[in-house]
Amino acid sequence: MRLDGVRLLLIGAVLAATAGCATSEEWTTWRSHTSHFASGPHMGFSVRNREGTAPRVSRQDITMARNENWWGKPITVSQEQILER
Amino acid sequence: MSGRSVRLAAALAVAGLLASGVALGLAHAAAPDDRILPAEKHTSDKGRALARKYQRALAELNAEVYHCMPWLDVRHEGIGFYKPRHLQGDVRYLSLNVEVDQQPSAEFSALPVHDRASRMFSRYVPALLRRMTREAGLMGEPLLEGFTVILSWLKQEPRPNERPVLDTIAVFLPRPQVADFLAGRATAARLAETAHVIAWDGETKLGEFRVRGWEDNFVATYRIANYQPASEVTCR
């Protein structure tokens, strides 16, 4: 009985950590309202967003979206060519 | 597994979940500190003195851009009291080097480079200068000669298997010109006229050229849909 209670606690903790994942509709909404960013889902975004609420986008979401979607190392001037320390 | 061991495992699991949540929250709130050139990496006493004196102001600038203008990415060590290469002597400008994360429209990419540069100057340079000078002491700082804003942006969307190419402008402004602009004695158009601007197409230097400037309220009005800064951050 005691073991069952502990199992229940563990299952509850896991459910609490994974609950409220963003729906595909929320992702579509976010994608369609930003001209700058798009991203696949990740845990930080999923944990905060629940069914029926507007998705919340954090600074970390934006950084991750940018990293996921970037085309690769850009051709650009280095800062050292412009400035000296 | 004994009842005691199970209880211990359960306690550790819950503590781990809570700890990871706390760590995640802290990671969200902090701006990356590698964006500021450390004081000891400045190569003159003057640069190091400025960096130490205004350490807090630089951290606040870094945090404000990170949280409140999240479509801008400050380059590694992109904030510091650097010496512009084209100037003689140990001339120190407060510098901010950012990449603008935007998907260029076909219309924007088709503009001549001077027009692209003028649009980006008007959109960002006045707004960033206001943020760079929030620390009132900077405008009266005798060791500080001016301000540099470096902007890079995607020239056009790359084709498959093509590396992206960035346009870059480096804008250099002596302190008196910035003071006139901040005090309302000079317009954005005048600021552009007095700026020393050098441009690059990817790695190719295009040289010095003039840009036009005008009032642009994009930074004041643009919001990323559903974006919420960290709760302890106040954006002005």
Describe the model:
- The complex is a heterodimer of chains A (85) and B (236).
- Chain A is an all-alpha fold and 85 residues long.
- Chain A folds into two domains: 1-32, no CATH class; 35-85, no CATH class.
- In chain A, 51% of the residues lie in helices and 2% in strands.
- The longest helix of chain A has 17 residues, at 2-18.
- Chain A is elongated.
- The model of chain A is unreliable at 14-45 (pLDDT under 50).
- With 236 residues, chain B is α+β, with helices and mostly antiparallel strands.
- Chain B is built from eight helices and six strands; from the N terminus they run αααββααββααββα.
- Chain B has a six-stranded mixed β-sheet with strand order 1-2-3-4-5-6.
- In chain B, strand 5 (196-201) and strand 6 (204-208) form a beta hairpin.
- The longest helix of chain B is centred in the first third of the chain and has 27 residues, at 3-29.
- The chains are: A mainly alpha (85), B alpha+beta (236).
- At the A-B interface, helix 1, helix 4 and strand 1 of A face helix 1, strand 1, strand 3 and strand 4 of B.
List its traits:
heterodimer; A: 85 residues; mainly alpha; 2 domains; 4 helices; B: 236 residues; alpha+beta; 6-stranded mixed beta sheet; 8 helices
What's the gist of this structure?
The complex is a heterodimer of chains A (85) and B (236). With 85 residues, chain A is mainly alpha-helical. In chain A, 51% of the residues lie in helices and 2% in strands.
Unreliable residue stretches of chain A: 14-45
Structural class of chain B: alpha+beta
- Total strands of chain A: 1
Strand order of the largest sheet of chain B: 1-2-3-4-5-6
> Helix coverage percent of residues of chain A?
40-55%
Structural class per helix/strand content of chain A?
mainly alpha
In percent, how much strand structure appears in the residues of chain A? under 5%
